[in-house]
Design goal:
Layout: E1 2-7, E2 14-17, E3 20-27, E4 31-37, H1 43-58, E5 62-68, H2 75-85, E6 89-94, H3 100-110, E7 115-118, H4 130-139, E8 143-151, H5 156-172, E9 185-188, H6 189-197, H7 205-212, E10 216-223, H8 238-249, H9 253-282, H10 290-323, E11 330-334
Helix pairs in contact: 5-8, 9-10
Length: 342
């Protein structure tokens, strides 16, 4: 419950202390939980079994929004079975698979809570952490970020890619993204409104929240392994794809690096030409032959291809933004009303 104090109101609802009249009114807090899901029928019951007691201790007014990419298993049926018992459990199903980032953004757009928490259904985001997150929000923080101290059950190469990616992104990006944080976070309503207002189509939530700003708090935690099933991301390179979005969508540094690399290679070529000329003028035999030429051509060709590839990454993202296709298309909304129709 959120308490608002006003002066000079109905005497029946006043507390008097030293002649000061204070009116106490209580506004219920609506808490929204956004959960993107795909092929998670085994995790949904266990997730709700741990989540609902936590929510009941925080507020009577909450909603759990499952953002569902159409799944070949019984994920949709399991969610609807629980919804039949509790209308606060809601379903947002898409016309096709749009991916977790778009499912998350759709859940944010349809949510109505004063605070919105994004979390995974596989219990790697512990529901018990919600108490501390909500407490931080009530202290006045607009964004609360759980930060992973340990990543149980993940292969070493994924941990290496993630650690390297965060360092690179924070070195070159226009905004700072706290390391070892994922989409698991609490956002105040004004933060959610600003995130939804952004036009980017990549759905890199942690970067979008960093762009929006506002006051942030970090809560360290140890991330457990998945409760059941396999991750829908590639075990080794899933983090790499996310990291590339962080690099190319929030920084033009790669283009600058490509340009400087071109200058360095050109300078090296002039230096090599000077060496050849010096040997020629001195009458010394030039021992380098075709291998030198092959190495130089291969090296320069590789640099050119890398530069073109970097340019292509940016052009591809520009193309996606210019097309302005819908980020998601909703096939079914159970218990939810589009914010434009409220």
């Amino acid at each position: 419950m959120v308490c608002h104090c006003e002066e000079g109101r109905d005497p029946s609802a006043l507390l008097r202390a030293g002649g000061l009249a204070i009116h106490l009114t209580f506004t219920p807090m609506l808490l929204s939980i956004v959960v993107p899901v795909f092929k998670e029928e085994k995790n949904v019951p266990q997730f709700l079994g741990r989540l609902r007691p936590i929510l009941a201790g925080l507020t009577e007014d909450y909603e759990v929004i499952f953002s569902l990419d159409p799944s070949p298993d019984r994920t949709e049926d399991v969610i609807l079975e629980h919804r039949a018992l509790d209308p606060r459990i809601k379903l947002l199903k898409f016309s096709r698979r749009f991916g977790q980032p778009m499912a998350t953004l759709a859940g944010l757009e349809y949510s109505a809570g004063d605070a919105v928490i994004v979390m995974d259904v596989d219990l790697q985001d512990p529901p018990e952490l919600l108490r501390e997150m909500v407490a931080k929000w009530r202290e006045g923080f607009d964004v609360v970020l759980p930060q992973r101290r340990a990543r149980t059950g993940e292969p070493w190469i994924k941990k290496l890619v993630a650690a390297t990616g965060y360092k690179v992104i924070n070195k070159i990006a226009d905004v700072r993204i706290p390391p070892n944080t994922g989409d698991f976070r609490l956002m105040a309503r004004r933060v959610v409104n600003e995130v939804v207002r952004l036009k980017e189509s990549h759905g890199f939530l942690r970067g979008m929240v960093a762009v929006v700003g506002f006051r942030q708090a970090i809560i360290p935690f140890d991330r457990p392994a998945r409760f059941a099933g396999e991750t829908n991301y590639n075990r080794f390179f899933g983090s790499l794809r996310i990291g590339l979005n962080g690099i190319f969508c929030f920084s033009s540094y790669a283009l600058t690096l490509s340009t400087w690399l071109g200058f360095v290679i050109a300078g090296f070529s002039f230096l090599l030409m000077a060496v050849y000329l010096f040997y020629k003028l001195m009458g010394w035999p030039i021992v380098w032959g075709d291998p030198t030429l092959v190495i130089l051509v291969s090296f320069l060709g590789g640099i050119q291809l890398i530069s073109v590839g970097i340019l292509g990454e940016y052009i591809g993202r520009i193309y996606e933004e210019v097309r302005a296709r819908p980020k998601f298309i909703v096939d079914r909304a159970e218990g939810l009303v589009h914010p434009g129709r409220r």
